[in-house]
Amino acid sequence: MAARPIASATISFGLVSVPVQLYSASESSANITFNWLHKKCGSRLKQQYVCSKDGEKVEREDMVKGYEFSKGQYVLFTPEELKALEEKSTGAIEVTEFVPLKQVDRIYLDRVYYLGPDKGGERAYRLLAEALKETGRAAIGQYAARGKQYLILIRPHDGVLVMEQLHYADEIRSPAEVPVGKGEVKKQELELAIQLVEQAASDRFRPEAYEDNVRKRILEQIQRKVEGKEIVDEPEEAPKAQVIDLMEALKASLAKAGVKEPGERKPAKRAQRPAASQRKAPAKRKASGA
Q1: Which of 193, 205, 196 is nearest to 257 (CA)?
Q2: Total number of domains constituting the chain
Q3: Taking the alpha carbons of 207, 213, 216, 222 in that order, is the dihedral positive or negative?
Q4: How big is the CA angle at 148 (ends 143 and 151), to the nearest 5 degrees?
Q5: What pTM was computed for the model?
Q6: Could you tell me if residue 262 is inside a domain?
Q7: How many beta carbons lie within 10 A of that of residue 188, not counting itself?
Q8: Which of 164, 13, 153 minimizes the C-alpha distance to 94?
Q9: Number of other residues whose CB lies within 10 A of the CB of residue 2
């Protein structure tokens, strides 16, 4: 089944315009959701809003949006005022610069979309894709949609242009905020860790080799309930003894993988005895008194 576009846009760089269509690059069907039901009759429950001050149920026509500018203090906005604050969606993807793709840290990645050429834009689309591929660069720009302005990156992928929605710099928290403590890395431990990494190393990323086993198990158990069967609680493996010593943990990991430790000598080979046909016959003694 062919993918359906979710929006149309135009990429602009210099005096060149590329009409494109946006497609979802992934599916959200992996999420399994459960609904709240009335335990008494099994009917689905409706969400209600209740005033936190007097406990009164509030209908939608009595609701108004506000921004908390100070603890417990709000400034109110009408629907018209909120509409005026939204960014106008023009469908324009304004490219401002081209940067080396490797320079864009993956921590900025938010969402991913495929771009396909719209009518009349096939040649310009392929031209941009080839230019980015040959230069190893990505297009950086901004795109307005759904009342917001997004920072985006456009890169080639298997002959198709991919648009990545990025976080702005002020949305990324500094890694300095994460406490990592202090710890000395010993040379021998590092050698063992590197060997363990190399032992499980692959030359390429193979996402098809992985499956969401939790989702699969939940769906199987849901089907059991649909068929009137009870959910089976799968026995868990007994927790293994934790190796406290880091060196011992590394050695145990290598031993489990059948890898010898760095510098470990191979056992000396025994000298093989020659076959019976190759053995020399013992010299005959001369007769005494000859």
Answers
A1: 196
A2: 1
A3: negative
A4: 40
A5: 0.70
A6: no
A7: 12
A8: 13
A9: 4
Tokens encoding 40 = 């008494």
Q: What is the DSSP letter of 170?
A: G
Q: Which CATH number covers residue 20?
A: 2.40.290.10
> 129 is in which domain, residue-wise?
7-26+93-171
Place of tokens 């002959």: 159
- Amino acid making up residue 34: F
Q: Average of pLDDT values for 250-265?
A: 70
Could you tell me if 82 and 66 are in contact, meaning their C-beta atoms sit under 8 angstroms apart? no
* Closest by Cα among 233, 89, 104 to 165: 104
Rounded distance between C-alpha atoms, residue 104 and residue 111, angstroms = 15
- Each residue of 133-144: pLDDT tens digit? 999 999 999 998
Question: Where is 122: in which H helix or E strand?
Answer: helix 122-135
Note whether 166 and 108 are within 8 A (CB). yes
CA 3 to chain centre: 22
**Residue 17 is assigned to a structural domain of this protein:** yes
CB 106 within 8 A of CB 145: no
Structure tokens at 277: 């046909």
Work out the pLDDT band at 290, boundaries 50, 70, 90: very low
In a domain, 273, yes or no: no
Q: What number of other Cβ atoms are within 10 A of residue 82's Cβ?
A: 12
In a domain, 114, yes or no: yes
Q: Per residue in 166-188, pLDDT tens? A: 999 999 999 999 998 888 888 98
Token pair belonging to 123: 């040649």
Q: Which residues pair with 44 in a beta bridge?
A: 37
Please report, rounded to a whole number, the percentage of residues in the chain having pLDDT higher than 90. 43
Q: Are strands 148-157 and 16-24 parallel, antiparallel or unpaired?
A: unpaired
pLDDT confidence bin for 261, thresholds 50/70/90: low
